[in-house]
Amino acid sequence: MTGHIPRRRVVSLVPSLTEAVATEAPDLLVGVTDWCSHPPGLDVARVGGTKNPDLALITSLAPGLVIANEEENRARDLAALRAAGLEVLVTEVRNLDQALRELERVLVRGCGLARPAWLEEAAGAWREAERAAPPATAVRRAVVPIWRRPWMVLGRDTFAGDLLARLGVRNVYADHAERYPRVPVAELNACGADLVVLPDEPYRFTADDGPEAFPGLPAALVSGRHLTWYGPSLTRAPAVLSAALDAAR
Predict the structure, then answer these.
(1) What does the pLDDT look like over 27-81, one tens digit per residue?
(2) Do the Cβ atoms of 113 and 107 come closer than 8 Å?
(3) What phi and psi values does residue 131 have, to the nearest 5 degrees?
(4) How far, in Å, CA of 231 to CA of 17, rounded?
(5) Is the separation of the CB atoms in 69 and 92 below 8 Å?
């Protein structure tokens, strides 16, 4: 592995990145968040939430690297970890291409691992999905709630919005000034959408909780992990999401 840095102890503050590291080298992980659910049964220290990590515990684990994300983790927490002498690698993921680059940066340059084969598999799966996507004239316009009470939706410049666009679904609020705007449900219903896309995270929308608020629209209940996570799940995401979207016609 010439040119790679030595493998080292890692704390992950991002569920997607936890799964990515654990898929390749679970022994590197010494701490993960309470929300890191994949792979199941991961037996390492739990260091709190993405927004409220236990900084003292993280420091006591003496990691060689903390991996984080500029959206999921708070800047002040990451600054405190750096002030404690820890190296913090912060990712930024707003679209698929960036996600694949950042995953390589974390795994190869950050953790000292070989580039995993599933990165190219994921890229190939998405290339095939884009080739099979409907033409521009058949693109569906969707609202994509991520929370209710209050209602919040995907806005501009989001990873999930980019994935949907590659599958022929355009987010109605893709040009909104905010990335996750609060929009009254009456306005959502009047925005001219053809579809409502309801993921099961961060809010757990289900067949009984969500579609009833959009009586005039077909509802696609989708896997939040395949819509919002960037990691090994990207290899199956095009097929999983396409099936859910096709079912909502």
Answers:
(1) 999 999 999 999 999 999 999 999 999 999 999 999 999 999 999 999 999 999 9
(2) yes
(3) -65, -30
(4) 7
(5) yes
For the segment 154-172, what is each residue's pLDDT rounded down to a tens digit? Answer: 999 999 999 999 999 999 9
Give the contacts of 200 (CB within 8 A, at least 6 positions apart): 206, 221, 222, 223, 224
In contact, 20 and 5? CB cutoff 8 Å:
no
Q: Are 108 and 218 in contact (CB under 8 A)?
A: no
152-185: buried (b, 16+ CB within 10 Å) or exposed (e) per residue? bbbbbebbbbbbbbbbbbbbbbbebeeebeebee
- Look at the pTM and tell me if it is higher than 0.85: yes
Q: Exposed, middle or buried: residue 23 (CB in 10 Å: 0-12, 13-18, 19+)?
A: middle
In angstroms, the CA 23 to CA 221 distance is: 27
Residue from 122, 127, 107 nearest 17 by CA: 107
Evaluated on CA atoms 246, 98, 229, 213, the torsion sign reads: negative
